[in-house]
Each structure stands twice: as C-alpha cells, then as structure tokens.
Amino acid sequence: MKMYSEKIDELQKYFKTHNKSKEYLGHSAKVHSVGWSCDGKRLASGSFDKCISIYTLDRDRLNKEITFKGHTGSVDQICWHQTHPNLLITASGDKSVRKWDTRVQKCVATVSTKGENINIAWSPNGNAIAVGNKEDLVTFIDARTHKIEAEEQFHFEVNEISWNNTSDLFFLTNGQGCIHILSYPELKKQHIIKAHPGTCICIEFDPTGKYFATGSADALVSLWDVNELACKRVFTRMDWPVRTLSFSYDGKLLASASEDLLIDIGLVETGDKIANISVEAATFTVAFHPSQYLLAYACDDKDTYDRKKDAGSLKVWGFSSD
C-alpha cells in the first residue's frame, strides 16, 4: 500500500491548488449531457432547450464557438467520436439521432428512430451507433451509411448502454441491478452480472481497458475487472442514486455524482477519496478531459434571479487556483 499512499498524497496535494471551477452559461434550460472531443480541444453540452453548445478550450478558459440547432425535442445525451475530433452525435426526445461536424458547423446526418431517445453510444472503433429509447428499444445504426442495422427490444428497464473498448461486446445496465453483456454485432447474450441490489443507472469504461464502473440507485459505485467480470471494489461515499461517472484520461481517478451536493473523486486502485467538488444541486452529467485533470459537469441549478428557471449552465473544475 505504500506506493499508493504516496500517489494519494501527491494527487490530494495537486487538487488543493487545482480546485477552481469556472461557470459558463450556454443554454436557456437544464443541461443534460456534457462531453469532450477526443483531442480535448472542444466541450459540447446538450440541453432540454433542444440545442447543443460547442466551446473551445483555450488554456484555462472556454470560449463559446457555436450553437447547433435542429432538434425539436430535448437533447438528452451527446457523444463524440473516439478518434475523430470533429464529429459528435446526439440523442433527442424528438425520435431522432443527429450527427454534427464542427468543421462545417452543421448537422451532417439525421436518423429517424422509433421512440423518444434517452441514451446514445458510439462504438470505440467508430463503426456503429447505439441509441436507447424510453420504451427500452435499442437501435443500432451503421455510423457510415446511417442505416438502421438492428433493433433489440428489451423487456426490462434499459438504462445506460456502452461498448467495451474493443467494440466486440455491448453492455447495458438495467432496472433490476444487472449488467447484460451481448456479443457484437451478433447481439447474443454472453453474461448477466447481478451488480447491485438497486437499479443500475450508469456504466463507464476506463481508458486503459482494465476496468468498467457502474453507478446504482443504492448510492454505490462498483468497479469491475473487464476480463474477470469480478467486482474489485465499491465506492461508498454517496447517499443518493449515482447518476453519472467518468474516468480520468490515465484511468487513475473516478468521478461520480448524484443528488448529493458534492461530486466525489476517488482513486481507482484503492477507492480512497482524492477530492470532492461542492455543488448546489443534483448533478446529472460529468466528463473528465481526455488529457488533463479537468472535469466538466452540469447540475440542476436554478437561475439566480428567478428560482423557477433553470440556470442552463455548465462548469469546469480543476483549474489552478493561484
């Protein structure tokens, strides 16, 4: 444990001087989803106001670049291509998936789907897009032709969906606390892991390919070995259902958030607390930068002057406090 105690001290010390949050107002309603492009140069946010805002990161500040409009319903989740820094996809309640390109600054493809979409994932190899709707139907789309390749109707509550890092297994979390693992593209059932006593809400793979983490309604985050499918440890510092997770670029840190008024940042290898971020409202989305210890997040904040209105803001934490 000695090697870890030095690492813990070093990281805790770093965040004592890098704990500044900056707030950006980009939307007229609640922000549902934030995410960084793979090169870390851009941050995107999707909102209940039907828009997607794109910011560019300039050393220690974000600048608003463009607002993408076109969806006629809430933008519930955004997802960038894992190797192409200009492409992102969005899932909306308007029964469509859209692909956007920041080079031409517009929507380059629209795919109509059967229901109100809430979750979206892009396979790490870039070939496929999966989108889940409120009726627990998951639609698989060819990312190049934008044709629907398959539809899979599940008879349980499907929450978050994700591929593994090699894109040959498809994972989904469900309302019975299970993780279902299917082969891809065959979509044959490989394993069902009973992960939590409560609803399994979110799932996230670490960049090194060693672990994945799940967050649950039981307020726990569990860390799993990808190859053994064994639970390695449980993070227990939350009191409310864990809604969102993100690993740091090096796989060393795991951020988790809920309705607790703090975002927890723990050391993956031991579970120790490294830092936390105080927030004023429930947090629904967090995303670590792909090459720096910066965390983007969005809360259910209200407008300072009108408490009935959503603030529509997002924040980035981890800037130097000097």
Q: What report would you give on this structure?
A:
This protein is about 5% helix and about 50% strand. By secondary structure, the protein is mostly beta strands. It has one domain (about 1-320): Methylamine Dehydrogenase, Chain H (7 Propeller). It has a 4-stranded antiparallel beta sheet with strand order 1-28-27-26, with no helix packed on it. A hairpin with a 3-residue loop joins strand 11 and strand 12 (about 135-140). Belongs to the THOC3 family. Keywords: Repeat, WD repeat. InterPro entries: Tex1/THOC3 (IPR040132), WD40/YVTN_repeat-like_dom_sf (IPR015943), WD40_PAC1 (IPR020472), WD40_repeat_dom_sf (IPR036322), WD40_rpt (IPR001680). This is THO complex subunit 3.
Essential attributes:
WD40_repeat_dom_sf; mainly beta; globular; 52% strand; WD40_rpt; 5% helix; 1 helix; 4-stranded antiparallel β-sheet; Methylamine Dehydrogenase, Chain H; single chain; 322 residues; repeat; 28 strands
